[in-house]
What does this fold into?
Amino acid sequence: MKESSGLIRAFLAFPLPPAVIRYAETMQHFLQRQGVAAKWVLPQNMHVTLWFLGQQTPETLGRFADAIAPVCRQTPPLTLSYAGFNVFGKPPRVLFLNWSCRDPDMDPTRLLERVQKAGRQVGLVAQPGNPFKAHVTVGRLRTPQQTQALLTLCHIKCRELHWDVSPPPPPSPLQAVVLDRLTLYQSILTPTGPLYTPRREIQLGH
It folds into this structure.
């Protein structure tokens, strides 16, 4: 599917280490075995979105990538810890792995603020989104039946998911996941799902 009017649907995100993707797949398989059907995110599409940019011209994206390069060079790699499986929506619609940052100086929100400032300076205008929350989407529930299947396995209290069955434990590497680069992705929506293509990769701390 071609982008309309020469515009590119884009977002800025952290690619994931293999250990995170493997555990996300483990959770998908666990839920499938428990009878939960969902629109599962493919491994190659998993990431932590920092900023959804919406529709932009190629020229604007090029200026933006150049503008954030020095910001990234001045930012050391970020270390996040796995903070459990959770859901967005009421009733639940989005299934995700949640992440936290123990060191306030390494909070991705601070990087986001600097990146957004650089974007404004080169004329990038993005639609306001939801407040940033570090997460990896693993699936989306499309029907009430799918939601009910999930709720037979857990309950939700104060916006937190609590299991009534035992999910696979996270491996120890997930307690200190290093995110060392940002990728500017192009997103093309197709009838079979989105296609994400890297346009620019920028290392943190280099």
Notes: The mean pLDDT is 94. The first strand starts at residue 8 and ends at 14.
